[in-house]
From TrEMBL:
The organism's taxonomic lineage, starting at the top: Bacteria, Pseudomonadati, Pseudomonadota, Betaproteobacteria, Burkholderiales
InterPro entries: PPM-type-like_dom_sf, PPM-type_phosphatase-like_dom
PPM-type phosphatase domain sequence ranges: 15-238
Name by which UniProt lists this protein: Phosphatase 2C family protein
Domain of life, per lineage: Bacteria
Length: 268
């Protein structure tokens, strides 16, 4: 049952279509993990990026995704407290694994989780680190997560421009990640955000968003007819921009979600 009562909606539930890609880029190992699950009219989409520089990043991201998915499938609740409990569960599971296996004690991962209530037409999201969630409507950027990173703090304080989030040499220093002792807690939207047919969401790791601007994401959304189409257009931009800079690409993972009205989908 939904955690909080929302206005009853007699309209048919919104429909979702998803597309996803993940690859190692120029790295030997892909430390990203991802997953999605649906229970009745609730959907949960997760992307996690193992933090580089420590052993076991790919294990950390895998533990995070599976912990959230398992708890969601078990409880299938919607609300800020429910989402917070899923993220807390991921933290607890990773801490347990760190304690069990000494060589994994320093592993950690970012996480971004999107919950969608298709019947009540709303969404919630939570994140730790610099894996991002964007919401677009008709090519306009509505919402996006702010990185838990040193450079984001510099930007907020006026010491850096927003452009430096993508290029600053210290951009990978995080203030929050699952598995880091003393980390800032997960940030969860306090209230459900209304959604409607025509909305689109993007969840992606820094290996994706570092090579494509928000303006390019929005432009690609206006050109695309489907979640897969949007993802394909954006990924081409990511690869092109990376090649121009001649920098080996990082692990790269992205999920796109298209929201549609039932009748629009039936007529398509």
């Amino acid at each position: 049952m939904p955690e909080q009562s929302l206005l009853s909606n007699t309209a048919a539930p919104l429909l979702l279509s998803l597309a996803q890609l993940s690859h190692a880029g120029g790295r030997q190992v892909n430390q990203d993990s991802w997953g999605s699950a649906q229970q009745d009219d609730l959907s949960c989409i997760i992307v996690s990026d193992g933090v580089g520089g420590e052993y076991g990043g790919e294990i950390a991201s895998n533990v995070v995704v599976h912990a959230i998915m398992e708890m969601f499938v078990e409880e299938a609740s919607f609300g800020p407290r429910a989402l917070q409990s899923y993220l807390d569960c991921a933290v607890a599971q990773l801490n347990r694994r760190q304690a069990q296996i000494p060589r994994l004690k320093d592993m950690s991962a970012t996480v971004a989780t999107l919950l969608i209530d298709q019947k009540n037409r709303c969404a919630l999201w939570g994140h730790m680190g610099d894996t991002r969630i964007y919401q677009f409507r008709r090519g306009q950027l509505l919402h996006y997560t702010k990185d838990h990173s040193l450079i984001q703090q510099f930007v907020d304080a006026g010491h850096c421009s927003a452009e430096q989030l993508r290029r600053h040499p210290r951009r990978s220093i995080l203030c929050a990640a699952v598995g880091v002792e003393g980390s800032a807690p997960a940030e969860v939207t306090p209230n459900p955000v209304p959604i409607q047919g025509g909305d689109a969401f993007l969840l992606c790791t820094d290996g994706f968003w570092e090579w494509i601007s928000e303006a390019e994401m929005a432009q690609a959304a206006t050109q695309a007819d489907s979640a897969q189409d949007w993802l394909t257009i954006m990924h081409a931009i990511v690869e092109k921009n990376g090649q121009v800079c001649n920098v080996p690409l990082d692990n790269c993972t992205a999920f796109t979600i298209y929201v549609a009205e039932p009748q629009a989908a039936n007529n398509h």
